[in-house]
Amino acid sequence: MNIYAFITMLFSLQFFYWFVGQKASKQLKNQEDYFLAGRSVKLFPLMMTFLATQVGGGIVLGAADEAFRFGWPVLLYPLGAALGLMLLGSGIGRKLAAFNVPTVAQIFDVAYGSVFLRKIASTLSVVSLFMILVAQIIASHKFLVSLGFNNTALFIAFWAIVIIYTTQGGLKAVISTDMAQAAFFSVIFLLCFGIVLFSESQSLSMQIPTAETFSNVSSKLSGWLLMPLFFMVIEQDMGQRCFAGASPQIVSRASFLAGIGTMAVCIVPVFFGSLANIQGIEVPQGGSVLMAAIEKTTNPWMSALVGCAVLAAIISTATSLINAISSNLASDFTLFLKNVNPMSALKGLTCTISIGAIFFAFYFDNIVDLLIQSYELSVVSLFIPIVIAIFNKKGNFISALLSIIFGMIGFCLFRVYPIAFPREIAGIMLSLLGYGCGEVIVLYRARALIKT
Description:
Layout: H1 3-24, H2 31-36, H3 43-54, H4 57-70, H5 76-98, H6 107-112, H7 115-146, H8 152-199, H9 201-205, H10 211-215, H11 218-234, H12 236-244, H13 248-278, H14 289-297, H15 300-332, H16 342-360, H17 367-392, H18 397-416, H19 423-451
Helix pairs in contact: 1-8, 1-15, 3-8, 3-13, 3-15, 4-7, 4-13, 4-15, 5-11, 5-12, 5-13, 7-15, 7-16, 7-17, 8-13, 8-15, 8-16, 11-17, 13-14, 15-16, 17-18, 17-19, 18-19
C-alpha cells in the first residue's frame, strides 16, 4: 500500500465529510429536525443512507475474516441484511412509517398503551445499538493497526472529526455524509472486484461451495442469516429512516433498492476472504484478511483507495448508530432534556455516546460474534411483539410483557445450557410462547368477568 497516499486521502475525505455534514446541519430548528430530518427525505438519499447504514465493519472486514475460515457460505451473513432491507421494502417499512412516531420503541406506547414497555424496549435497543457501535470502532481500530497505524492520537483524531459533524448536524448531516460515503465505497469496492475477478478467474472457479462447506458452518447459519434479517424490522436506525421518509411509498422503494445494493457490494469482501484462503495468502497476526488479499492481488494505489473505502463504510454505519442511540435516549427518556437548552442537550448526549463507545471498544475483539449477539438480544425479546403490533395495530400489555420476558430468559438460558437446536430460533419461539401465554391469560380474565 502507498502509505502516504492513504493518509492524505483518508484525512482529505474526512474533512470533505465534515464539510458536507456542516452544510447539511444549517437551520436545525427542533428535535424532529435533528433526529428525523423534518420527515422529508426523498428516494435517492434515503436509499443511499439505508445502504450506508448496513455496509459497515461487520459486513466488510468481519465477513472477509469469516470467509477466510469458512468460504462462500459466509455470504449468508450479508444476505440476511440485504433480505431484511427487501423485507422493509415489501411493505414492513411502509407500515412502520404509518405509526408516525420518532422511535421504534414508541410502537409499544401506541399499540400496547404502555410507557413502561416502551422504556424496556428502548433500553434493549440502546444496548444492542451501542454494542454494534462498539463493533464498528473495533473494526476501525483493528484495521488501522493492521495497516501499521497503532497510533492512539491518529485514532482519536480520526473519530473526533466523525463525532464533530455527527453531533452538530444530526440525521441531516448523517444522511448527507452517507450519500458521499456510500457512493465512494460502492464504486471502489466494485471496481477492485472487477479488476481482480478478471485477473483471477481461475481461482474463482476453485471457490464453488460444496455441501461439506455448508455443513462446517451449520451452527452459525441461523445467526448469520436470521438475526440481521429480523433485526432489520425492529432496529432504531432502520426505523428512524422509515419515519424520516417523505412518504411510505418512498420508504418501500428506497429500502428495496438498498437491499439489492447491499448484496452487490457485500459479495466483494466474501470474495476476497475466500480468495485469500484458496491462494494461501499469509495474513499477519491481527491483520485484515481483506487488505492482505487486496495488497496481494492489486497495486499500492488501489490498496490505498480500498483502505479509505473500508473506513468510509465503517464511519457511515457508526454515525447512523450514534444518532439512533441518542434518538432513543432523548425521545423515550425525556429526563435527559429537562431544564436545559434542547438542542445543546441533544448534541451533548450524542457526543457523550460517541466518546463512551470508543472507550468500550478496547474491551472486545471479535467483530462478527459481537454483532450477532447484539442482534440476538433485541430480536429474541422484541421481534414478536413489534411484528404483531405492526400487523395488528393493537395488542395486550400482558402478552407483550411476557413475550419480552420469555425472550430475555431464552437469550440467557440457551447460553448457560446449550441445545442442539439453533438458540436464536429457540429464543424467538420462546418469546412467541410468552405472547401466547399472555393471550390465554387475557382471555381467561375476560371469561371470568363475563361469568361474574
